[in-house]
Amino acid sequence: MIAAMLLMPECTTQAARSALTVWGLDVVPSLFPYMVFCRMLAEQFKKSSMPAAPAAAILGLMGGSPSGASVIAAYGSDLSRRELLCLAALTGTVSPMFLRNTVNTWVRDARFCRLLLISHLLGAAFALAVVFLCTQKSGSKKKPLPPSAVQSGSVNPIVQCVDGILGVGGCIMFFSVLAAGIGAMMPAASPGLTALLHAVLEVAGGLHALTGAPFSPDLRAILVAGASGFSGLSILTQNLLFLRPLGLSMRHLTALAVVRALGAAGAMALLQML
Predict the structure, then answer these.
(1) Which positions ≥6 away from 86 have C-beta within 8 Å?
(2) From CA 213, how far away is CA 224, in angstroms rounded?
């Protein structure tokens, strides 16, 4: 990657510039206010003794990542290990508005976008069910949080979300440059393989590439659903910014993302048969 940045600076610099534009003009205006609202609302729910699971699930699914992780972080000390893993599996999703609106501007197919959203949510539900069944022996005992997580709970929600949104911008830029560098170093790779690699790294640009990749319509739909369920390493890293203080690692989030991807791809395959 260092060699790509030194030998092909126009490619990687343009990728960073485009990522910064997307972050500043699209992500910040839509994500930051919702993230602050979710954080404040979660803290009010917490003070009123509302259970963490429904609040984090509803707010997280409505906003997508990393809003769900932000809400989970607000409830951190009230969650057992099992609840934490279940909520991380359920809420590590892509924004429904992105799947319904942005993807539709690429494919101009409202039915496909409806099926994509349904399969995406079914993939999240599948991951929740798998984690729920696999963690039955862990019980409901709450695990003490690291001092850093306890201290972060006393920080103003707006200040926390400013730090979070800056981290989101860094993740988007880093993985966009990474995807551009890999693409530049693999000029002979097929467009389909390049699109898949892009989707694994950064979901927004990857889904855009997949929608135009040379696959059959049915296979393309399954791959897009699976990629949206995985959500890309960029979003996983964004979620990690909030969930690492609670004891989750990239290994945990990646495993949950793979399960979501399998569930979403399987759901899309079944929906296409109906």
Answers:
(1) 53, 128, 131, 132, 135
(2) 10
> What per-residue confidence (pLDDT) applies to 23?
80
Q: Which residues 6+ apart lie within 8 Å of 169 measured at CB?
A: 20, 23, 24, 27, 28
Report angle CA 130, 100, 121 to the nearest 5 degrees: 10
Looking up tokens 């409202």 gives 110
| Prediction pTM value | 0.80
pLDDT tens for 119-150 read 999 999 999 999 999 987 765 555 544 544 44
- Judge whether 27 and 64 are in contact, CB under 8 Å: no
For residues 72, 26, 257, 179, the Cα torsion angle rounded to the nearest 10 degrees is -140
Closest by Cα among 114, 93, 87, 25 to 238:
93
